[in-house]
Amino acid sequence: MNVTIPATKADWQALAETLIPRLESRAFIDGAFVDAASGETFATVNPATGETLAYVASCDAADAELAVSCARAAHARGEWARLAPGRRKQTLLKLAELMEAHQHELALLDTLDMGKPISSSLGDIAGAIGCLRYTAEGIDKVYGEVAPTGEESLGLVLREPLGVVAAIVPWNFPLMMTAWKIAPALAAGNSVILKPSEKSPLSALRLASLAREAGLPRGVFQVLPGFGHTVGKALALSMQVDCLAFTGSTAVGKQLMQYAGQSNLKRVYLECGGKAPNIVFADCKNLDQVANHAAAAIFHNQGEVCIAGSRLLVENSIREEFVERVLEAAEGMQPGDPLDPQSFMGAMVDETQYRKVLGFIEKGREEGARLRTSGATLAGPGLFIPPTIFDGVTPAMTIGREEIFGPVLSVFGFDSEEEAIALANDSDYGLAAGLWSQDIDRIMRLSRRLHSGQVFVNNWAGPDMTVPFGGVKQSGNGRDKSLHALTEYTELKTVWMALAP
User: What CATH code is assigned to 9-272+476-493?
Assistant: First the structure.
């Protein structure tokens, strides 16, 4: 198995030079790579250099209609949907094995496509492989139910695949988020159509070839690159798609729910935006370590993270001291060449996101927040923004309320538990929250009062595949990871049998 990982920037650059000329850029429909029906393409660009990597098939409604038809036909044939769970497991484990064999290539595709550091991409691929293996191993261990009836009847509760699942995934963790959606959907026996972001489609297309090699039947897994307002909308409006799984912005999530209502009332599972509070109390031990975690919580992946700890709430008695420690930690998290394994941050995904983040930084200045870093961008062709920290932020300020999706930290102060909870919950979002304290009673009290789908206590983003990932309020309603994810892609069926006396 070819799992030797390049060790240096030069190694990764050499690998990129051999990889780029042979990139697959066509859609994957019914087991084959094909051009979009319209023949249209779009450019996918390396944001660290401005280099065009490939011209990718730009699918639209015609391609969606074909893919849905093929997915529906595959489901009807039953070669995957009616396959014994243990046999589906073996195919998905084979796919995980192939992903592991090509992990360096998959990681490099995500780094080239969306600008994240190669070290982060390698971690993402490991997470994607782990997700596939965990979910595959779980599918033949989820049981149905026997209802508590009398002797005159037998009630069975069965779980069956939904049918056709459309998964729309974001650009910030391209392959990892893909795995979170497709692993449980495929394991449950569904046919899956994946629409990767137009900003990062390359690893999804490579995954398609590996899925074919692993033995997934034609039509069971398809990939439609393209834009949300064309192929994404067509999938959401399709009368033959049974479920829509989406990770992305809250605004788009709301639109997708409307499309579901306008079509066939398909299930819609959403993981949307976030503005996570990270609460630090004065009784914390080792403030240097906590400051490092607080900085990484916002600056990891250039802040392009739905659960980024973008609102830092610090008890006022340690606030000045703690912010200084966060500033010091941020100095070691500067952006650099994404192909350099030593770079903590890379480039912003594209010009649009780059300008959007700079606009938020300017807004923070205008509204009176105290800028504690330079706020300057880096010279050169790449779209790099260094760690940016504002202190003295209030809930009324734009940077304190809206999701920025960039390396911008807003610091608030508080004097009591009640004030901390009020600040933390004063948000439209509820995807994640952090809580740092040595007081176990406080931890238990506040964990229950935080309006969030996830609460990280004395860590940030620690959970593995065994626990669900998702939010409340306008952060959505879906749950990725854990065995709970499997239930989202199955239909409950009751079978009630009358027994002869």
Answer: 3.40.605.10
Considering the chain, what percentage of its residues have pLDDT values greater than 90? 96
Residue of 59, 243, 284, 306 marked active site: 306
Q: What would the pLDDT profile of 423-443 be if each residue is shown by its tens digit? A: 999 999 999 999 999 999 999
Say if pTM beats, i.e. exceeds, 0.85: yes
Digit-coded pLDDT (tens) for 168-226: 999 999 999 999 999 999 999 999 999 999 999 999 999 999 999 999 999 999 999 99
Task: Give the number of C-alpha atoms closer than 13 A to the C-alpha of residue 34, restricted to the C-beta side.
Answer: 17
Annotation says 321 is catalytic: no
CATH of 277-464 given 3.40.309.10, 3.40.1060.10, 3.90.950.10, 3.40.1160.10: 3.40.309.10
* Distance between CA atoms of residues 353 and 333, nearest Å: 20
Report the candidate in 261, 243, 353 with the shortest Cα–Cα distance to residue 303.
353
Please give the Cα distance from 188 to 88 (Å, whole number).
9
Active site residue 272: no
| Among 59, 100, 131, 271, the one annotated catalytic | 271
